[in-house]
Amino acid sequence: MRALVQRVTQAEVRVGGEVIGQTGPGLVILVCAMQGDDDAKPALLAAKVAKLRIFKDDDGKMNRSLVDIGGGALVVSQFTLAADTSRGNRPGFSTAAPPETGERLYLGFADALSGLGIPTATGRFGADMEVSLTNDGPVTIWVEV
After folding, report:
1. Bridge partner list, 15
2. Could you tell me if residue 144 is inside a domain?
3. Is residue 122 among the annotated active site residues?
4. Structural domain total, the chain
5. How confident is the model at residue 101, as a pLDDT?
6. Which pLDDT tens digit goes with each residue over 47-83?
7. pLDDT tens per residue across span 75-122
């Protein structure tokens, strides 16, 4: 699984103009299940993301995790993280997991984060979504398990 993690002060996701998920200080996590990912991957990715020390401590150093700060997460499925841009100008997405698998693993990731005590909101798998956020830092990190 792949994730693009963005440290935010706030974020929300809309479908059809309606807010369906939001968070205050914490992370927006764009998630993509890849071909070959199994049911163990969501928990591994959630543990990694929850423990990333990317929040400032009292000395201003990135030394605290999402768990440490009591932050929230907005998890959004994004199969385009599987883009292969090595040939031509049109990205290929053949390395993304099939939709049924992708949805199961995406929801498993959100459940695993929630199980770690992190307030977790989600987008809607397969929907045309609008994500608004205020990137804090900016801090944006690629994570893969």
Report:
1. 18, 129
2. no
3. no
4. 1
5. 98
6. 999 999 999 999 999 999 999 999 999 999 999 999 9
7. 999 999 999 999 999 999 999 999 999 999 999 999 999 999 999 999
Active-site entry in 35, 80, 93, 134: 80
Q: Is 85 a catalytic residue?
A: no
Q: What's the per-residue H, E or C state across 81-131?
A: HHCECCCCCCCECCCECCHHHHHHHHHHHHHHHHHCCCCEEECCCCCCEEE
Catalytic residue among 78, 109, 120, 122: 78
Domain-located, residue 143: no
Residue 59, number of CB atoms within 10 A of its CB: 6
Dihedral, 2, 68, 125, 145 alpha carbons, nearest 10: 20
Is residue 139 domain-resident? no
Q: Which amino acid is residue 22, in one-letter code?
A: Q
Residue of 23, 79, 109, 122 with catalytic role: 79
Catalytic status, residue 79: yes
Domain of residue 30 covers 2-131
Flag whether 53 is in a domain.
Answer: yes
CATH number at residue 53: 3.50.80.10
